[in-house]
């Protein structure tokens, strides 16, 4: 296999990895906020449910969660799902896993806000939802962005775990080519793809952090 063909195949796999990455963020970021708000709810039952959920997601391997989501419907309910279920299972597993991590980041950011801001907003006539959306949440995003960046960068590398469901993302393709050609070169090329994607995302997140640093000169 020529180097050009290998890079084209890896590039196609990288597009699938990027699909997992962006869809995971699309679903896990808002879900994480919802979980965080439920985790801070006045309802003891709701707080307990969210605490258990977060504990399970953070306390078990993501690869195990991928297998559970993919095989669970069949072994538990006898449901035979189509070929598209493989990709759906990957997105579901990644989203619910990362939502748990994002929820704790959101919670720490919300909890760090001074109580005086809530009181001042109430005196100014803001509702609870208006206070959160217009005053608290923008400041929370600024505070938690470095932690979010770390998780986003980790997600780039975690997309390679999709190989456990035989999904043809970049790492899976690199393994197949390496086994066929008995060469380590596909792994080096895959590492380069991951590194470049990682660098682009890190640069973008850094620019966002600087844009939100409105206290700087």
From TrEMBL:
<dbReference type="GO" id="GO:0006865">
    <property type="term" value="P:amino acid transport"/>
</dbReference>
<feature type="domain" description="ABC transmembrane type-1">
    <location>
        <begin position="14"/>
        <end position="205"/>
    </location>
</feature>
<dbReference type="InterPro" id="IPR010065">
    <property type="entry name" value="AA_ABC_transptr_permease_3TM"/>
</dbReference>
<dbReference type="InterPro" id="IPR000515">
    <property type="entry name" value="MetI-like"/>
</dbReference>
<keyword id="KW-0472">Membrane</keyword>
<keyword id="KW-0813">Transport</keyword>
<dbReference type="InterPro" id="IPR043429">
    <property type="entry name" value="ArtM/GltK/GlnP/TcyL/YhdX-like"/>
</dbReference>
<feature type="transmembrane region" description="Helical">
    <location>
        <begin position="85"/>
        <end position="103"/>
    </location>
</feature>
<keyword id="KW-1133">Transmembrane helix</keyword>
<comment type="similarity">
    <text>Belongs to the binding-protein-dependent transport system permease family.</text>
</comment>
<protein>
    <submittedName>
        <fullName>Amino acid ABC transporter permease</fullName>
    </submittedName>
</protein>
<feature type="transmembrane region" description="Helical">
    <location>
        <begin position="184"/>
        <end position="205"/>
    </location>
</feature>
<feature type="transmembrane region" description="Helical">
    <location>
        <begin position="52"/>
        <end position="73"/>
    </location>
</feature>
<keyword id="KW-1003">Cell membrane</keyword>
<dbReference type="GO" id="GO:0022857">
    <property type="term" value="F:transmembrane transporter activity"/>
</dbReference>
<keyword id="KW-0812">Transmembrane</keyword>
<dbReference type="InterPro" id="IPR035906">
    <property type="entry name" value="MetI-like_sf"/>
</dbReference>
<feature type="transmembrane region" description="Helical">
    <location>
        <begin position="20"/>
        <end position="40"/>
    </location>
</feature>
<dbReference type="Pfam" id="PF00528">
    <property type="entry name" value="BPD_transp_1"/>
</dbReference>
<keyword id="KW-0029">Amino-acid transport</keyword>
<dbReference type="GO" id="GO:0043190">
    <property type="term" value="C:ATP-binding cassette (ABC) transporter complex"/>
</dbReference>
